[in-house]
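Structure first, sequence second, as always.
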C-alpha cells in the first residue's frame, strides 16, 4: 500500500497569499516523479494557521528519492545569478508520515 506524507506549515495570515502563489508557480514539479500518486495543498478554514501539504507515494523509497533529488534541488542555493532567496512564507514546518492500511473510493453507479 501507499505512504502519505503531510507537511504542516505554520503560515501567518499576511503570508498566506505568498505561500499559495509559490505552490501555484511550482505546479507540475512533483507530478512526474517516480512513485508520486497525489498532491493537495489544504488551506485552514478556522482555528489554526497551519496549512497541510498532502502527498501520497507508492513507497518510502520513492518519496526519499524525490526528497534527495528534485525537491532538494528546488530548495537549494540562491537565484540564477546567486541572488538572495525569497523569505520563507511559513514560520515552521513538521512532516507527518503514515502508511495507508485501508482505502476506498466512491461507489460506481
Amino acid at each position: 500500500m501507499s505512504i502519505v506524507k503531510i507537511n504542516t506549515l505554520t503560515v501567518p495570515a499576511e503570508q498566506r497569499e505568498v505561500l499559495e502563489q509559490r505552490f501555484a508557480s511550482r505546479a507540475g514539479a512533483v507530478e512526474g516523479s517516480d512513485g508520486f500518486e497525489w498532491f493537495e495543498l489544504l488551506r485552514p478554514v478556522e482555528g489554526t494557521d497551519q496549512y497541510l501539504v498532502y502527498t501520497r507515494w507508492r513507497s518510502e523509497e520513492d518519496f526519499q528519492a524525490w526528497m534527495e533529488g528534485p525537491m532538494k534541488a528546488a530548495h537549494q542555493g540562491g537565484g540564477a545569478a546567486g541572488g538572495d532567496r525569497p523569505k520563507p512564507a511559513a514560520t515552521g514546518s513538521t512532516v507527518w508520515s503514515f502508511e495507508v492500511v485501508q482505502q476506498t473510493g466512491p461507489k460506481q453507479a
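Margin note: Strands lie at 3-10, 36-42, 50-57, 92-99.
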